[in-house]
Amino acid sequence: MGICGDYGPLDFRSSCIRASWSAFLPTAVVFGLCLVALPIPKPARRAFSILGSPFKPFVTLQEAEALDVKALGVEEEEEVPELPTFVPLWRTVLFVFVGIVECFCWTAAGAYGLYNHNDNPIFPFLVALSWLYTAIRPIARPAATPPYGLFAIYLVLFITSILQIGGFLFDHGVSGLPYPSTLSLVAHDFNLLAILLLLILTVNMPLAVPSSRVNKKEIVSDTYAQPH
Q1: Which of 108, 110, 163, 192 could be 125's S-S partner, Cβ–Cβ 3.0 to 4.6 Å?
Q2: CA distance linking residue 176 with residue 189, whole number of Å
Q3: What is the pLDDT of residues 210-221, one digit of tens each?
């Protein structure tokens, strides 16, 4: 007998199956990110480098700037300015704040489930663990460019949140079951809005940060000024 009794892993008519996917998917992504962060032996690094070579940019932004400097006739011995490493504080604070609030809320939901002896009360704690990672990651490794690991977690959390809310509508409309409590519905709605906010914030981060030699105001204008 599985976690959800006789229901299969793809039987999304069961609220238990939906809750298990909503808990295990983001936890698996977090586990994978932690696993990748561990030191990898050299043979494995070579294999990953070969597999990932098609996805690497042909010319990086730094290489393009170096070529542009040579084209402008700048002396080679002239020092090229370093890349700015400034990370907006408000963005880090927002990532951390939402992650901590979500972690506390899901931990409280898990504690409430344990108190009421609900079935599988471990699921909210797994989701809380995923949100804890999203709160620690921006502090441990702040970045001015999109954190793709966090984006993957937010995307999975967004999908599972849609799955949960859609499950409530399915249970009520098809199976005739009552909606969860008003507090639970409001919590799920705010959870979805928070994840959507974080996704929008992440996709609006710059993919690369040019050096101080580049005039940022001319990046777009020069692109559209090029003859086609």
Answers
A1: 110
A2: 21
A3: 555 555 555 554
- What domain range is 105 assigned to? 15-40+85-207
pTM of the model: 0.77
Pick from 84, 86, 90, 83: nearest CA to 201: 90
Residue 175 lies in a domain: yes
Q: How many CB atoms lie within 10 A of CB 64?
A: 15
In a domain, 21, yes or no: yes
Number of domains in the chain: 1
Q: Give whole-number Cα distances, 172 to 14, 169, 175, 215, in Å.
A: 13, 5, 6, 56
Q: Do the beta carbons of residue 109 and residue 125 sit within 8 Å?
A: no
Torsion sign across C-alpha atoms 202, 95, 122, 13: negative
The token duo for 103 is 């972690």
Q: Hey, what are 134's tokens?
A: 């999203």
